[in-house]
Design goal:
The chain is mostly helical and 119 residues long. 72% of the residues lie in helices and 0% in strands. It contains four helices and no strands. The termini are far apart.
Length: 119
């Protein structure tokens, strides 16, 4: 198998993992999210070993397109994750009534600033 075809196969696998990750995020399926994260880490390791980082390796148009698709999917998943995290933070703030509890260090006097001022 040539390096270019191996790269294409790995990028196609990454696209499938990113699509599964998006489904897991949409369904708030923690086990599937963790599984997708582990798959992404493993594929990143494989791409590091066999990817376009070797000397003299030239990307063809198909590989460039797959890389672009991987970047876009990963960015969308990052945005979805950030929206979910913001939603969870807002719900925790509403439940606890004290948003500073989860944001120590934000603002001029975070929740831990008072401990150092006791002297």
């Amino acid at each position: 198998m040539s390096a270019s075809s191996e790269l294409r196969d790995n990028l196609r696998q990454m696209i499938a993992v990113l699509q599964a990750e998006r489904q897991a995020l949409a369904g708030l399926d923690l086990d599937a999210i963790i599984g997708a994260s582990q798959d992404k880490i493993a594929l990143c390791g494989t791409l590091d070993e066999t990817g376009p980082f070797a000397d003299g390796f030239a990307l063809d148009e198909e590989c460039r397109g797959l890389l672009d698709a991987v970047r876009r999917l990963n960015e969308v998943n990052r945005q979805v994750r950030n929206l979910i995290a913001a939603n969870v933070a807002a719900r925790l703030d509403a439940l606890t009534g004290s948003p500073a509890l989860y944001r120590a260090g934000t603002g001029a006097r975070g929740a831990y600033a008072y401990a150092g001022a006791r002297g």
